[in-house]
Amino acid sequence: MTVHKQQNGGKMENLESLKNELVAQVQAAADIRQLEDVRVAVLGKKGRVTEMMKTLGTLSPEERKEAGRELNILKTEVETALEERKEALSAAELNAKLAQEKIDVTLPVRPENQGRIHPVSQIYEEVVAIFGQMGFEVAEGPDIEDDFHNFTALNLPPNHPARQMHDTFYLPKEANGSTDIDDSYIVRTHTSPVQIRTMEKQQPPIRVIAPGRTYRSDYDATHTPMFHQIEGLVIDTNITMAHLKGCLYNFIKAFFELDEIPVRYRPSFFPFTEPSAEMDIGCKKTKNELKIGAGTDWLEILGCGMVHPNVLRAGGIDPDKYQGFAFGLGLDRLAMLKYGIPDLRTFFESDVRWLKHYGFTPLDMASMTGGLSGNGGVR
Ligand code: PHE
Predict the structure, then answer these.
(1) For 46-100, what is each residue's pLDDT tens digit?
(2) Is the pLDDT assigned to residue 228 strictly greater than 90?
C-alpha cells in the first residue's frame, strides 16, 4: 500500500499513512458525538474514504482491482477502530453516569429537619412501647359505635344517670326503623367499648391496650370535641387489684422517665368497674410550672378498676371463673403534661408553626431500649 500516488496520477494518497491518520482521529474522539463526526468525515456520503472510492471508476480495470482491495482494507480497519472506540466510550459514559447517579441509601433523609411527628402520635408510640414490653397487644374498635357497645354492655343500661356525664354525639337514627336504643349509632365517648369487642372475639387470658379517637361535646382549654384515649384491659383467672396497681405504677414511671414517683388511688365510680379508682401522681404546682414526681400536690392521671361482673357477662366471659382490671387514660392530656403544652385546642388547629415547636423528629422513634422520648421534643 505504498505506491498509489504514482500509480493513479496522485489521486490516491499513501494509504498506510492515511490509515494511521484516520485511526489517530478515531482514537482522539473524546465522546460518542465527536466519534460520530469522525465517522461521517471519513465514511459518510462525502467522507474522505468514500470520495476515494468514487475515484476508482477512473482507473483501468487492473488498477481498480488492486486499489479497490486496498481501499476496502483501509475501510475495514477504520471501521474496526471506530467500533472499538465506540465501545470504550460507551463504557466510560455508562460508568460516569453510574457514578453520578450513585445514591447512598444509608444517608439520613434530607432535608432532615422538615417533617415533624405530632405530639399525640409521639405519646401514642411511647405508650404502646411501654405496654408492648409488658406483653400487651394493641386492639382496635370503630369510632362510630352502637349504643350497646359504648353504654349498655358496659353496665350503663338505657336511662342510667351516668350516661349524662358523657356529652354524647348521637348519629341520625338508622333507616331500618329499629326503635331498640342498643341499635342506635353514636361516635364513641370513650375507648371502653373496645373492652367488649375484645371479649367478644377472644377468651382470656386477655392483655390489650386500645388507643384511639373519642368524642364528646365539650370545648375549652382542656377539652376538645375529638380527643384521644388509651384503654387497658387485663383478664385472667387470678387477676387482683395488686396487679392493677403494679402495672400502672410501672407504666407511669416508664412514661415520665422517673425512677420514683408518688402515686395514690382515690375511690371513684365507673359503672363498668367495681371497685373503681382514680390514680393521682405527686407533683409540684406553681403559677407557671408543673413539676411531675416531687412536691406535695396531686394530679389526677387516669381512671381504673376491677372489671364489673356484668361487663364480663356482656362480653361472653364467665365472671365466676375470670376477673380482670381495666383502665382508661387521656392521651392528649399525657402529652400536655409530659411536654408542657398548655392548651389542648392548639393540638388540632393544624398550625405548622405549632407543630415545628412541639413536634418530634421522625427518626427519634420511641422505644424502651433506644430511649422513650428520644432526644426529646425539638424545641
Ligand atoms: N372510660 C372511662 C372514661 O372515659 C375511663 C375508664 C376506663 C375507667 C376503664 C375505668 C376503667 O372516663
Answers:
(1) 999 999 888 888 988 898 898 889 999 999 999 999 999 999 999 999 999 999 9
(2) yes
Q: Give distance in angstroms: CA of 352 to centre of ligand 1.
A: 32
Q: Which among 15-29, 208-222, 306-320 has the top mean pLDDT?
A: 306-320
* Ligand 1 proximity of 168 Cβ (cutoff 6 Å): no
pLDDT score, position 16: 86
246-273 burial, b at 16+ Cβ within 10 Å, e below that, comes to ebbeebbbbbbeeeebebebeeeebbbb
Q: How confident is the model at residue 355 (pLDDT cuts 50, 70, 90)?
A: very high
What pLDDT, on a 0 to 100 scale, did the predictor assign at position 114?
75
The 10s digit of each residue's pLDDT in 119-161 is 999 999 999 999 999 999 999 999 999 999 999 999 998 888 8
Ligand 1 pocket check: which of 270, 311, 325 to mutate, most ligand atoms within 8 Å of Cβ?
A: 270
Q: Are 293 and 258 in contact (CB under 8 A)?
A: yes
215 lines ligand 1 (CB under 6 A): no
Q: Which atom of ligand 1 is nearest to the CA of 190?
A: 4
Answer whether 308 contacts ligand 1 (Cβ < 6 A): no
User: Is any ligand 1 atom within 6 A of the Cβ of residue 155?
Assistant: no
pLDDT digits (tens, 9 = 90+) for 278-312: 999 998 888 878 888 888 889 899 999 999 999 99
Indicate which residue's Cα is closest to atom 10 of ligand 1: 304
Cα 304 to ligand 1 centre (Å): 6
Give the integer Cα–Cα distance in Å for 327 and 5: 106
Nearest atom (ligand 1) to Cα of 191? 1
Give how far Cα 174 sits from Cα of 82, 158, 187, Å: 81, 18, 14
Q: Which of 190, 222, 268 is the best mutation target for the ligand 1 pocket, counting ligand atoms within 8 Å of the beta carbon and taking the most?
A: 190
Alpha helices in 151-301 (DSSP H): 193-201, 241-256
As given in the structure block, the three cell numbers for residue 319 are 365472671
Other C-beta atoms closer than 10 Å to the C-beta of 48 total 16
212 lines ligand 1 (CB under 6 A): no
Find all residues with CB under 8 Å of 67, minimum gap 6, and list them: 4, 7, 8, 12, 56, 59
